[in-house]
Amino acid sequence: MEYVAIFMAWPYANGPLHLGHVAGNCLPADIQYRYERARGRSVLMCSGSDEHGTPITLTAEQEGVSPQEIVDRFHEMNSKALTDLGCSWGVNIDSRGVEFGGTLYNRTSDPRHKQLVREVFTQLLESNLMSSEIMQQYCSISDDGAVRFLPDRYVEGDCPVCSSSGARGDQCDECGATYEANELVNPRSKLNPKASIEIRDTEHLFFRLDLFQKSLEAHYEERKGTWRPNVRAMTKNWLDMGLRPRAVTRDIEWGIELPLEGEEWHSKRVYVWFEAVQGYYTCARIWAEEYAVKAEHPDGNDAWGRWWKISEDGREPKHIYFMGKDNIPFHTIIWPAIIMGMNAANSDDTITHLPIPGHLALENNVPANEYLMLQGGQFSKSRRHAVWLPSFLSRFDPDTLRYYLSINMPEGHDTDFRWDEFVDRVNNELIGTYANFVHRVMTLTHRLPSDGGNPLSSFFDPTDYQEYSSNVQELMNEAIQSMERQRFKEALRSIMSIAQSGNSILQTAAPWEHLEDPDSDEARASLSALAYSWSLCRGLAVALRPFMPFQSDRLWEMLGEDDDIDTILWDESFSYADLNWNSDKPSHLFRRLDLDDILATELALAEDESNSKVNESDTVPGDSGGGYIEFEDFKKVEMRTGRISSVEDHPNADKLFVITIEDGPGTSRTVCAGLKGIIDASDLLGLNVVYVANLKPRKLRGVLSEGMLLAAEDEDGKVSVLTMNDDISPGSIVR
């Protein structure tokens, strides 16, 4: 059996995930995990929340709460958001059995993680792979003379490499350079920019990265044919500059305590860069101890080794790490060096890039993505420039996001997230090509008489479409080749081409012309094409599942398939099995999007965010972070009744009405509502409606809106405005 380990870079638990995180590492990892399973491989996927380090403490200090409160809040929020996105983190044990692996989204605050990190720390220290050095670090001096050392992210200034302002103490977001905090130009305290800071000596332990220079150079030569150009370039740049010892401890109170005696070490913690990358290793071990043992894996606590260790016969598990480009050196230089150090410590102390049986495996590929930009500007939690994942998922089908980011993934260069392009891709590609093909096949078939089975079964002869079938197989082979290299855009385009072929088959055969009289030779040929198209729908449900799992489940159910879709391999996706049947009326896979409505909502969210004091922290705009709100929060919403006295077209928006509501004796207010094209203006006049009365007024496309109408939408897209009995006076409070 082939063993594959999928690793996703650990997001900081200091704020909600934004779409940059999703495109950079979250979604690619899940797509690859689902694909590897669909090839019949044994797959273990590991990641979780990075809960230590200065980003956490900075957020905690800004909010005036403890770091633990911050990480608890955002770990729950982000793990839920990833599950809602369709990521496979809840599948701790593979449905095929524990020998096929599973997943674990863990936390670096896990006590077992801390214990294992301390063990690795001790192991490397005792193997003379660490050294003690005095380093210079910025510190602030309070009015009473108290000294506080300022870890990297407590300091900002100008980048020593590209001179960009606003660079962090350890890394520049603009150019991706990493450095020591004392190399920063024009440094200042992030918490108090006006405070004077100075450099003082402090003792720290350093990982001897310089000892791994030659082995890492040899490793680079082996991998440069696999790595993407951005990975090769950044790795080579580090190697060409010459590797230097790197501090593995920091003067900070939040983090993993050092496994060292002596008062001088009690106020220091393990540096987060050294700790977090070990999470891939510790997470696998925790998975084995918590889940594999309970599922009676034959290796028990040591089950993790199947995905990590070189076997006695030389078999190497395949390791794939997903991340954004700012994390490249940590996964091509630092983490491989730590693994080499662990291997050396466990054998003959020889540092090598060629692991032997019993050693831990190095990575096979690090398919780091470039940045997903937001309308031309980089996504950033710290700069509040983002579309937040929880808020997005509260308004859109997760598969629409998965499709758009997959087809627009920044694999070779930065790409933009644009609302107009998102709407266009969903409406014209996802719905216009794929969902339309499926809906045509389903609805046409359901117009045929059925005796309880699929009415197309008697017309189904795959040999009639061998040419099309060969083309389908070629496209699937192309998709497989692309997926093996983590080129998701290519793979998705190949699969979508199958749907395009299906539309061509239908258009040529015109089965809608023969539904009333299916007995002629011409009709039988036409309905045979429809039957073949039905089989294509089955194959597309399987092939597209790594990219869009929710729609695959919906389509699978409409097809009447009884088998678990997760058990169907890609190699079998377009095999010509019997045509099953579901007598239920088929429904649309997706709903069309309206750009004007989306932009109006986004504008409102942006204005609310900018006017909120909560903007000082990293909470989700438009989202509470949990499934519930407190009663006190609900009491803040004031709902009243009002009678619609006029309805006019918005002068600057195609989908908005400008509605005047009589909200009391002799008084009225204006509300903009996205109901144009859904409800006739004449049907709205005179209605006694319910509206939110205390929503902060805001301009929508130039017209001031002073509230929000309440309406409901069912699963078929039918919209109805909430109304009250006519005997309720305008301005009445809704309780």
Summary tags:
single chain; 735 residues; alpha+beta; Rossmann fold; Methionyl-trna Synthetase, domain 2; Isoleucyl-tRNA Synthetase, Domain 1; 4 domains; six-stranded antiparallel sheet; four-stranded parallel sheet; 26 strands; 36% helix; 17% strand; globular
Amino- and carboxy-terminal Cα gap = 62 Å
Q: State the CATH class of the largest domain.
A: Alpha Beta
User: Please, what is the CATH homologous superfamily of the largest domain?
Assistant: HUPs
As a whole number of angstroms, the C-alpha radius of gyration is 29 Å
What is the number of independent domains? 4
The largest sheet, given as strand count, sense and whether it forms a barrel, is: 6 strands, antiparallel
Total number of strands: 26
What is the overall shape?
globular
Mean pLDDT: 90
Query: What portion of the residues fall into strands of 2 or more residues?
Result: 15-25%
How would you describe this structure to a colleague?
It is built from 19 helices and 26 strands. The chain has 735 residues and is an alpha+beta fold. It has four domains: 3-105 and 273-400, 3-Layer(aba) Sandwich (Rossmann fold), CATH 3.40.50; 121-272, Methionyl-trna Synthetase, domain 2 (Beta Complex); 433-572, Isoleucyl-tRNA Synthetase, Domain 1; 629-734, OB fold (Dihydrolipoamide Acetyltransferase, E2P) (Beta Barrel). Strands 17, 18, 19, 20, 23 and 26 form a six-stranded antiparallel beta sheet that branches. A four-stranded parallel beta sheet has the order 3-2-1-13, sandwiched between helices. The termini are far apart.
